[in-house]
Design a protein that fits this description.
The protein is α+β, with helices and mostly antiparallel strands. The chain is 30% helix and 20% strand.
Length: 110
């Protein structure tokens, strides 16, 4: 076997991203990407391929609420102005469709 072929056959390490809500590093595919558009709106990017500055959140209400209430999302996306009420309502409505918590130790209440 050629050396180039053996290098290609090795398993690739998937990209890691940090959740804005809980600051835990996770596989990129396990997180939901939010993207800032040129107009300054924040959209949910299910495919992870939309252009613009992105931030990642776990698929649970805990992380979404933390990111929205503590303005971590605005900071991560480098927004000049706070999120509009309309945009915030859309993100909160999406968060309500997610499970309340994931089985991570960071989401356990003390």
């Amino acid at each position: 076997m050629c050396r180039k072929q053996t290098l290609r056959q090795k398993s690739r390490q998937s990209p890691q991203r940090t959740c804005v809500g809980c600051q835990q590093v996770e596989d990129k595919r396990q997180l939901i990407r939010l993207v800032r558009t040129l107009e300054g709106a924040v959209n949910i990017d299910e495919t992870g391929k939309h252009p613009g500055r992105g931030a990642y959140l776990h698929r649970c209400q805990y992380c979404w609420k933390a990111a929205l209430q503590k303005r971590r999302l605005e900071h991560a996306l480098r927004l000049r102005d706070p999120l509009s009420r309309e945009n915030l309502d859309i993100l909160e409505a999406y968060a309500e469709t997610l499970p309340e918590k994931l089985d991570f130790s960071h989401t356990q209440e003390t």
